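Q: Start with the shorter request: fold the first protein.
A: Done. Sequence, then structure:
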Amino acid sequence: MKRITTIFSLIMVVALTSVSCKDKASNKIVADNVESAVSRDEADKLVPVMTFEKTEHDFGTIQRGTPQETVFTFTNTGNAPLIITNAKSSCGCTVPNPPKDPIAPGETGELLVKFNGSGQNQVTKTITVSANTAKGSEIVRIKAFVQAPGAVPAGPVK
C-alpha cells in the first residue's frame, strides 16, 4: 500500500509541475514596468560625488585650550546637485559647519571645522558628512598634538 501511495504521489507531483510551467516567461513581461525601470535606472546614474582636496588636516603641536580651525575644500565631481544633510564630529570639542545650499556639479564648497584645543597628547577627531552621494556619507579627520600650557616640547635631552 505504501508503494502505491508513493508512486501515485510522484505521478501527481510530475503532473502538476508540467502543467504549471507551460506559460512562457516573455508573455508575463509588462511593457509599462520595463519603461519605468529604464527611467529609474537612468535617474540612478545621476549621483553627486564629493571629492575632497584633502581628507585629513594636522594642526601640528598646539597649546591646550588654543582654538583651531581649518577648511576642507571639496568639489562635486558627480552629475547631480550635492546636498549635505548633516555634519557631525566624534566629540563635542569639534564643530563642523557645512554649506547650507546645494552644490552644483563642477562647483566647489567648503566645510569649516573648529576645534577648541582640548585633550592631551596626540588627538584625532573624525567628522562624518552625510550627503546624497552613492555612499551616503564621507569622512574627514583632524589631528593635533596637544601640550599643557608651559610644557616643554618633547625631544632629546642635552
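Q: Next, the second protein, separately.
A: Sequence, then structure:
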Amino acid sequence: MKNLFLKSLLPAVLALPVMAALPEGHPAPDFQAQASLAGKAFNFTLEGALKKGPVVVYFYPSAYTGGCNLQAHSFAVNHEKFAAAGASIVGVSLDSIERLNDFSADPNYCASKFPVASDADGKISSNYDIAVKAAAPGKTDSRGVEINHGFAERTTFVVTPDGKIAATFGGLKPEENVAKALEIVEKLAADRSKAN
C-alpha cells in the first residue's frame, strides 16, 4: 500500500514547477550590467531603475528563440501599460551584449521599448537563484545563429522601490508571464493610490 501511495505521489511532485528562485519578500540583489536599448549599449543598474518606481526583472533563456521572442514582443506591446502603472521592465539573459543590441532594436521583439541586460558570466542569475542550463551543442536561434551561452530558467521578479521582491513566478507560458507581471504592477499602483 505504501509503495502504491508513493508511486501515485511521484507524478504530482514531478508536475510541480521547480522554483528555487528568490521568494517574495526577499531583498532583490542589486546588479549592474551592460544592457541594450534600441540597439545601443549602456550601463544598467537596478538601483537606478528603482528610483523611478517598481521594476519587472525577467530572466529568459535566450534572445531569438521561440518563447523568448514571444515574451519580448508581449512586453513591448504592453510597455505603455507598465509605464502607466509606474513600472519599468528589464530582461536578463546570458546573451552577449552584441546579440542583445540586435534583439533590443528588433521591431518584432523588444522593439526599442525596454532594455535587455547581458548576464554573460551568469553572476546575476546566480544571485537570484536562477537555474542555468548549458545550451545543447550546435543549438541555433531563430535566425540560424549558433547559441553558445547558457539558458537561464524563465523566471520573473517584480521589485518594489524599497528593493524588496513583491512577486516571483515562473512556469508560465511567455504571454501569461507578461500578463501576470502587469497584473501585479497594476495592483501595486492601485495600492499606492489608496495610500495617498
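Q: Describe the second briefly.
A: Strands lie at 32-37, 40-45, 55-59, 88-93, 116-118, 132-133, 151-152, 155-159, 165-170. The chain is about 35% helix and 20% strand.
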